[in-house]
Every structure is written in structure tokens, then in C-alpha cells.
Amino acid sequence: MTSLPAYPSAKRLGLVIDLDVCVGCHACAVSCKEWNTGGYGNALSDQDPYGPDVSGAWLNRIHTFEVVPDGGQVVGEASDARIVHFPKSCLHCEDAPCVTVCPTGASHKRAEDGIVLVDEDKCIGCGLCAWACPYGAREMDVAAGVMKKCTLCIDRIYNETIAEVDRVPSCVRTCPANARHFGDFGDPASAVSTMVAERGGIDLMPEQGTRPVNKYLPPRPRRPLADSAPKAAAVDVSGVTGFFAWLDGVLERI
Amino acid sequence: MHPALSVIVFTTVSGLGYGLAAVLGLGALDAAAWPTRVAHVLALAAISTGLLSSTLHLGNPQRAWRAFSQWRSSWLSREGVLAVATFLPLTASAWMSVIEGRYLPLWGLLGTAGSVATVFSTAMIYTSLRSVQAWHTPLTVAGYLSFAAAGGLLLATVAAYAAGSDMAPRLALAGIVALAAAWAFKGAWWRRQRRMAPISTPESATGLGAIGRVRLHERPHANENYLTREMGFKVARKHADKLERLALASGGVAPVLLLAAATFAGGGLAIALALLAVPFHAIGVLAERWLFFATARHAVMNYYGR
């Protein structure tokens, strides 16, 4: 059924991504690809994998942005610009437009935990869900002809055959900087809910009306570059006359 | 958005087919005349061709039957259900005309209603996507419906002149009105697209707008991917102005002049003039449909700096 479950559901599983901490190493994207090519559904295929035009389906991609404050300068090392690494995967939206447009019922949002999934045996590969998603969270697997997306590692988080510490999405388990956190946003006392409350977690493109579950923690404020520059104490030379006044003038000029 | 040939052909050809079927369903033409019989077959052929071509871009077309199941939420599913349901009255009307030379108002009007509803659903597939702001307007629906009506009236005019019917000049006049309405809606659609402020920006897409201006510094990958191929098409925006004028000239001005000339000419010359208007109109609509997809910007491109 591609109608959305009544919300807010009691349990809303998702990720918190800390943009202050992410170092842009792409390890989460690689471990995601590795786990999910052998996990839920069809393998994540690549086309021309060893050739010049390699491309394939990824469920997680890392963009890097430059942010320049108003009036800030972008000049070499003295720049006010800052670099923000930005991992992007499915946000498991509460008003997921990718779910309601699906004509076959393959795309669905689970009422029990809010995970948005594709039943690949029902998917006809029309691609409309990828058009409906403003975030680019869905990519067609060209080999299998079905739509792929983040499953929040549904085959890890409920998997009692692996150690408890591993029962989190692969990207979260891998992140060497601890920039990714997994938890239940339906529980106001959970670690992810607390983090979002303390750091002012934000929704991406709230104007699209999708009500994403995943939240991003904005980078912490940075001091302007000028504040860090060493300040030479001004020396008062008024009243100096003769040779030293001449010397002061010469030294000023050179 | 990537202008997939299968989808452009589907919307253009099935639009013409449903337009013609809707006009035939109103019973304006003599059901027993041979041009009317040809028109019935032509309408069904155009609709079938369009629907078949729309399955060409599917990854797993053998499961296409599943698309009839989610009509409660999905406009694509509704379109599929309505398209199949509308075949019933359209085939019945075509049978009555081609085989028995009769017009049955009930089946005819049901066919007209079904045709309008199917084109409406096609338009709603695009209109309902907030992620593509240019499409997210009632003008999209108005455009699809009026282009289908204009194409249908144009083809019906050819059939009426060929049958020597008194209705021909009136159908030609209706066609001129529909053409004017369609291109007026399209003009408004283009103006809106050009003037609208984007609702989503790199700042809102990253949530970093509170810090400052956001610019893509490094892409996630060196090559194109599914998203940039499917939604990062921007060649068209460069030549949009020229193509818009060409589309209007071929699809709007030329058919209006030819139809007007046909009403004055009458007889065999009128058939030729009205017939000549058809390819002009079809080429104009194909160009318009190509622009509809190719110039539309998807919200995800805020992450790709396009």
C-alpha cells in the first residue's frame, strides 16, 4: 500500500548527521555500498566498473560545500569561507512523496518504525519515486531495473545473529569521526532526540513539506578570521623630533 | 529533467488520440461516413501506441500490471486504471461506427469523459510533484487538456471536411479557439517558469543558509550518476527562447492560419489545408513537450550545483 501510515508513528527510526564533525572521508558511503550490495534485495550494480565511464547505484553520497558568510571574503588562506562535508542518504520522511506516487505498492513506509522501503519484487522501475524525492535519495539499479534506496540497514538493526554493537546502520558503525548517529526520534529521551534538541538539529528543505525524520546538526559557530590575527600594539611616536623623527619617517616608507 | 523520448512520444501521441476520441464521442460527426470510421481507428491506434511507448522506459515492464493497484494514492496508477477503463467505451463506439455505422450517445459520452479523465491524470502525475517547481501548477493541467482538445478538434476537422459535413467549419472554428487557449496557457506557463523564485535553494537544501551563501565545492563523484542523468539536464535552458518561438509558430500560428484558410476555401482544398495543419501542430506539440521536460529544474540539483 502506498498510502502513508498515520503519523507520527510511535517509533521513528532515523539518523542524526553532525556536520560539525564530518571530515568528508566517504567511508560511510563505501561501507554502505559494501554492506548493501550483499544485503537486502538485489546487488547494487555498477556499470563499466573498471572503465572510464564508471557509474552505479549508491545509497549514500558525500557532497562538499563551501559556505561564505555575508560580506565574507574568499581569498586564499585568509578566507572567511568554510568547507562543510555533507553526507546525504534517505531521510525517511514522514510525508514521503516517493511513497504516495508509487503506482505498484512497491514503495512503502512501515507503520511500526517509519522506515521507507522498496519491495523490489513489485517495483516496475518507472522511476517516478526518484522524481518525487527532492533529496535524490533514490537511484535506479540499471542492471536489475528496480529502484534502490537506504533501508536504514534493516538487515542489521534487527539482526540478532550479529553482535549488539553492530546492530546499527553500516554507515553509523563505520564512521571514524562519530559524525553519524542512529536512534528513535519517537522517544524524546533517546540520544538522537537529545542531540537534536541541544544542537538545534535541522530539516533539509522544510519547504518541500516532506517532514524528514533524519536531522542534521549545523556546524558550530566559528570566530571570524580577523579575531585570530595577532594585533601589533600601536606605538605612540608623537613628540619625537630630529634624527629619530627622520628615521621613523624613512622606516614607515620602506 | 531528462527528456525521455518514450514519455514525450507517449504524451503527444496519446494526447492527440484522446482528443480525437473525445470529439468523436460527442457525436459531432456522421458515424456512418468513412472518414469518421477511419478517425475511430486512428484514435484507438494513437492511444495504444502512446500507452505501449510509455512502458518502454520501465525497468521491469513484465510487472506493469501491478501499476493498476495503487489508485488511492498515485496519479500514475489512476492514469493506468482510467486508460484501460476508457478502452471499453472507446472500443464500443469504434465498433458501432466502423461495423454498424451508428452513434450511441451513452458509449460516446462515456468515452469522452474517460478520455478527459485520462489526460487529466497524465497531467496530474507531473503537476503533483513539488520537487519540480515548474510543473507544480494548475497551468500544467490546463495545458495538457487544452492541447489534447486542440489536437482532437484539428483531426476531427480533417475528417469532417473529408466527409463533406456541414459541421466542418464549426469544428475548424472550435479548433482555432482551442489552439489559442492551449498556447495562451502555455505562454502563461513559460512566463511563470521564467519568473518564479526557486522555493528550494542550495541554502535550504543543506540547511547551511544560516551561516552564509552555499556553493558546491566538490561533487560526490567524478562521473555522471543516475540522478544527474535523469534530473540534471540543462542543455535546453540555453536555447529555450528560440525553441519556444519555433514551437508556437509551428504548433499554434501555422495550424490556426491553415484552419482559417480552410473555412474560406471549402471543398477539396479545405481537406488539404486542414490535413497540412496536423503535422505542423504535432511538431509544435513535440517541441513543447520536449521543453516541458528538458527545461524543468529538479530540486535535487541544489546538491549538484546545476
Give the gist of this structure.
The complex is a heterodimer of chains A (254) and B (306). Chain A is built from eight helices and eleven strands. Chain A is of the alpha+beta class and 254 residues long.
Structural summary, described in words:
The complex is a heterodimer of chains A (about 250) and B (about 300). The longest helix of chain A has 11 residues, at about 25-35. Chain A contains eight helices and eleven strands. With about 250 residues, chain A is of the alpha+beta class. The radius of gyration of chain A is 25 Å and the shape is elongated. In chain A, a hairpin with a 4-residue loop joins strand 8 and strand 9 (about 145-150). A three-stranded mixed beta sheet of chain A has the order 10-1-11. In chain A, strands 2-3 form a two-stranded antiparallel sheet. Chain B is mainly α. Chain B has ten helices and one strand. Chain B has helices at about 5-25, 35-55, 75-100, 105-125, 140-160, 165-195, 200-205, 225-230, 235-265, 265-295; one strand at about 215-220. The longest helix of chain B has about 30 residues, at about 235-265. Strand 4 (about 60-70) of chain A pairs antiparallel with strand 1 of chain B, so a sheet runs across the interface.
Ordered list of secondary-structure elements with their pairings:
The complex is a heterodimer of chains A (254) and B (306).
Chain A: E1 13-18, H1 27-37, E2 46-47, E3 55-56, E4 60-68, E5 82-89, H2 97-100, E6 107-109, E7 116-118, H3 128-132, E8 139-141, E9 146-148, H4 154-157, H5 170-174, E10 180-184, H6 191-199, E11 215-217, H7 225-228, H8 243-253
Parallel strand pairs in A: 1-11
Antiparallel strand pairs in A: 1-10, 2-3, 4-5, 6-7, 8-9
Chain B: H1 5-25, H2 34-54, H3 75-100, H4 105-127, H5 138-162, H6 167-195, H7 202-206, E1 213-218, H8 226-231, H9 235-265, H10 267-294
